[in-house]
Amino acid sequence: MSGWTEGYVGGIDYIRAVYRDWSPALLCFALTLHGWRPPEGLRRGRFTMAEPGCGHGLTSALLAGAHPAARFEAMDFNPSHIAGVRRLAADGGLANAEFLEESFADYARRDGPMLDAVALHGVWSWVSAENRAILLDVLRRRLAPGGVLFVSYNALPGTLAHMPLRRLLVERCAEGDGLLPDRIARAVDFAAKMAAQGGGWLAGTDGVAERIEQLRRKSANYIAHEYLNGDWTAFYHADVVRGMAAAKLEFAGAAVPMEQLDDLALSSAQLALAAEAHDPAQAETLRDMMTNRSFRRDLFVKGGERLGAAERRSLLGETRFILLVAADDLPEVASTPIGRLPFPPALYHPLGEALAEGPQSLDALLARPALAAHGEAAVLRALILLTSLSLAAPTMPEDGLEERQASADRFNAAVLERHRFGDTPGQLASPLLGAGVPVSRIEALFLLAARRGTEPAAFAWHHLSADGIALGRDGERCEGEEANRAELTRRHAAFVQRRLPLLQKLGVA
Ligand SMILES: C[S@@+](CC[C@H](N)C(=O)[O-])C[C@H]1O[C@@H](n2cnc3c(N)ncnc32)[C@H](O)[C@@H]1O
């Protein structure tokens, strides 16, 4: 491990992922639901956002592509993360984003404009107390009054169950020689063997064997960055709240809107117990104990303004939503982190059909008799659930759409080109959502073929076969060019019929 990593795992990059949690429309929706005034700039697409510890920087790059009137600062001390995203930014014509190869300490010495939003994803639990103090100082100095912080962290008490697993992986990875990915694979195998023997912690703790099995399907990059850092601290929510107060930050609520629907996870008796706490941070911590939460995504505001009930209602009424799947793909029962949730067709059918037409404000939805009959609370609750489960999303306002479309088109062209070689961010920037839309490599190759006016199945096969990829059909591998191209032709027809219309509505095709 070299000196600059400050105890953070070195020699292995983080996974390439795009996260939706701090996209501006979602932040605004969550803040409004919690009764806070969202920063005006964030609502209008004119804001400054920072992402310290941005990893490969793909989320910041995508948001920059979707929000040309906003400004982004993303930084990470790992030069290979920054090199890759700078190349993407240059190819995608991003003039509004800086990707800095800096440590948190370097960044804290920098001056810059005040920030409307800061995202700390995958950082707080995985860096030292000194680095958290540096980040707090940045937040204290640079987050604008009214600004918002998104922060994720490993939470207590749920993480307690995984602490010995982390120790086991750290100990086993430190032994033996070979490359880190090989040592990680051996350490996970070793943990699985211990789990198979049972006994002690392995037998007495719910979910441990399952977590080890899940690790077998995770990349070494994920496991290294989740478990192998010198610092790895899980927090009670109340301690995070008290710590953030040093930067004048106040807890605003859960970033994932459905996490505020207490009745989903708690009985009325449990809710009554949580309500006995006068301190909201304690009440939230009691809820975490009753649900055994192991990971939190929280929003904090600095000098946030409380909305009155009428203004909150008015802002929610204006918020527009769109469906992210075809209306007939909406499930009747959704699998969620807290179990299976029914989506009764009497409400979800008309709602899905309305949202599939294009962006609809809550007020416009409630003007439809088929939805009004269910009442406002039920419709809003359904929107909270659909949004949290990535089946629907809030959109940006109509204003500025043309400018966002031009910028997203430029950025998406660069993203699509990367899918020729599998070097994939896996998401396109939607000017309507101001956020990402996931696409598979094959979908990206179909879209790229359309841009180039070339035959899609042959184009996709050319690039997939260069990587030794063959398709499957009904559990059988397609052998040879003819069978693979026939399968790609079939998939392209299905894509044109079902996915393309949706991607067009979202402005990514
Ligand atoms: C788990 S990754 C999360 C990346 C990104 N925020 C995301 O969610 O995809 C944490 C990142 O923080 C960076 N990091 C850790 N300590 C740092 C420090 N002291 N200064 C700058 N970056 C740091 C690491 O290089 C890593 O890319």
| Order of neighbouring strands in the sheet with most strands | 3-2-1-4-5-7-6
Summarize the biggest pleated sheet: 7 strands, mixed
- Beta content comes to 15-25%
Which fold name corresponds to the CATH topology of the largest domain? Rossmann fold
Task: Please tell me the CATH architecture of the largest domain by its name.
Answer: 3-Layer(aba) Sandwich
CATH class of the largest domain: Alpha Beta
Could you give the distance between the termini? 44 Å
Structural class call reads alpha/beta
Helix content: 40-55%
How many structural domains are formed by the residues?
A: 4
Assembly category: single chain
**What shape does the CA trace take?**
globular
Name the average pLDDT: 94
Rg over alpha carbons: 23 Å
The poorly predicted ranges are none
List cofactors, ions and other ligands: S-adenosylmethionine
Number of helices: 24
- Name the CATH superfamily classification of the largest domain: Vaccinia Virus protein VP39
Total strands: the figure is 16
Domain FHA: 469-495
Pfam families: Methyltransf_25, MethyTransf_Reg
InterPro entries: FHA_dom, Methyltransf_25, MeTrfase_reg_dom_prd, SAM-dependent_MTases_sf
Protein name: FHA domain-containing protein
Keywords:
single chain; 509 residues; Rossmann fold; 4 domains; 3-stranded antiparallel beta sheet; 24 helices; 16 strands; 50% helix; 15% strand; binds S-adenosylmethionine
